[in-house]
Amino acid sequence: MTARLLAFGLALVFAASYAAAQAGADKRRSGYQDMGEALQKMQDDDTANPGMLFVQLGGQLWAKPAGAENKSCADCHGVAADSMKGVATRYPAIPQGADRPVDLEGRINMCRTENQKAERLPPENRDLLSLEAYVAHQSRGMPIAPPYGPVVDAFRAQGEGIYRRRQGQLNLSCAICHDDNAGKKLAGIVIPEAHPTGYPIYRLEWQALGSLKRRLRNCLVGIRAEAWSLDAPEYVALELYLMERAKGMKLETPAVRP
Amino acid sequence: MRILPVLALLLGAQAAAAQPVTPQIVDDAIPTSLTGRPGDAARGRAIVASRSTGLCLLCHSGPIAEERFQGDLAPSLAGAGSRWSEGQLRLRIVDGTRLNADTIMPAYYRTGGLQRVARAFDGKTILSAEQVEDVVAYLVTLKD
């Protein structure tokens, strides 16, 4: 009797602490939670979110034939709401036939050069960002789900190395700000946890849509480190690690940030 | 004829001033001025307040009311001049890693041991010897 009661009691205690652990488990905060209510409202309202204009432009480009093949994205992929759903949650990834991971904009450029026989779009090009925003928007609300495998894991490990290494004249690392001091104020700005949940983002300071790489370059320039060129594999490695840190968090594309 | 050696002396002195001085550390302080002269507290205050020169208020707060945006990654600079001697403050600006290897505070007068420094700043100290002395002169005045 007592043994059974005890077991029952223990089970209850475990269940309770399990529930508590579940509820308290995920303390991660998207940059969304660190910005003011006005900006949150702007992001949430599709008619006020400036990023949605680029999503619309991306939708037009999706259906527009391009390159020597004169094919549109839609000619191969059909309705983006079906074929692109969830895609952005697992990039950077290694596409079939490639030997290294590429990010979403890299994947879009692969389709341009290989399937459309069109020019690569340069980094931060408006059409490229719009297509990327349109594709990533199809995963809005879905949890980040990174891919695994020996090659992609090695790149991710390289990214974590970069994240933890001090660099630049100010001798700081990403981890010092975004792990150890997230939530504190750097000259009045709340340091976010650096989750890549909303990219490409509409950043008020830029007055434009911009990529995760552009954001990472801003941080590198801030600590007076030599920024890699925008096509460097180091960014893809960093993005892989950031996606792993944010695994399970929901995509917000197109996010608004200060 | 008599002018030449004087010129040589002057040029020699200038060349020496352009080299980064190697500060003499005694215990947890650098007792003597990096320039051989005292700094200017008013200029030091402007350096501490500046977002592009001193960068101090990125991390610290301090009694500089006109700068609304101050950091809270580090202790307030208020009272630094009563907590530390001039020499102790100088070492903390020059290279805080001598006291705490893990500190996040940048070493303002050191060029070695850094990785991937942007070309525009490579081989340069964050502040010049004169600027370090100005900042120290200002911090010394922060008694409460």
From TrEMBL, chain A:
Ranges for domain Cytochrome c: 154-246
The protein's Enzyme Commission number: 2.8.5.2
Signal sequence bounds: 1-21
PROSITE patterns with a match to the protein in the record: CYTC
Keyword terms: Electron transport, Heme, Iron, Metal-binding, Periplasm, Signal, Transferase, Transport
Database matches in Pfam families: SoxA-TsdA_cyt-c (PF21342)
Known partners and oligomeric status: Heterodimer of SoxA and SoxX.
Entry protein name: SoxAX cytochrome complex subunit A
TrEMBL record, chain B:
Pfam families (UniProt xref): Cytochrom_C (PF00034)
SUPFAM superfamilies with a match to the protein in the record: Cytochrome c
Domain of life: Bacteria
Keywords: Heme, Iron, Metal-binding, Signal
Residues covered by the Cytochrome c domain: 39-143
Signal peptide positions (record): 1-18
Protein name, per record: Sulfur oxidation c-type cytochrome SoxX
Species assigned in the record: Reyranella aquatilis
Gene name of this polypeptide: soxX
